[in-house]
Structures are given as C-alpha cells and as structure tokens.
Amino acid sequence: MPETDLTRAAWRKSTRSSGSGPCVEVATLTSVTAVRDSKDPTGPALTLAPAQWAAFIVGVRAGEFD
Fold first, then answer.
1. How many CB atoms lie within 10 A of CB 33?
2. Domains of the chain: which residue ranges?
C-alpha cells in the first residue's frame, strides 16, 4: 500500500481509551483508516484498507485481541 499523507487527518480517540492506559486514535480518510498511539502522535501509524479495517473490527468485537 502506498504511503498515505496523514498531516491533515482528523484523529479521534477511541471511546475505550482511558486517560492513564494505552490510548488509540483513529482517522478515517477516503481510501484508508489510520490507527496510531495517542501518546506518540508523531510516531508511526498503521493504515488499513476498508476490508482490513472491517476484519479488524470483527476481531475486536469477537475478543481476539483481549
């Protein structure tokens, strides 16, 4: 997947993130969904195609990452 420019991405924090624990932010762009660690906003971000994001959400809801 080609590199995506995330400089203008509108990041939002997960409702499951707490103030003191691991925090995840998500940005939905036209062709990808990006995920990053909110405590390291200049660090790397994962970019997922729509099918990959959908599969990830199914896995989260099924408890695959607990």
1. 18
2. 12-61
Tell whether the model's pLDDT for residue 56 goes beyond 60. Answer: yes
Q: Find the angle CA(33)-CA(17)-CA(43) to the nearest 5 degrees.
A: 55
Query: Mind spelling out the 3-state secondary structure of 12-23?
Result: EECCCCCCCCCC
d(CA 23, CA 54): 20
CA-nearest of 21, 26, 24, 22 to 10 is 26
Tokens describing residue 33:
């969904």
pTM to 2 decimal places: 0.79
Could you tell me the pLDDT band of residue 11, with boundaries at 50, 70 and 90? very high
Q: Contact 47/62 with Cβ under 8 angstroms?
A: no
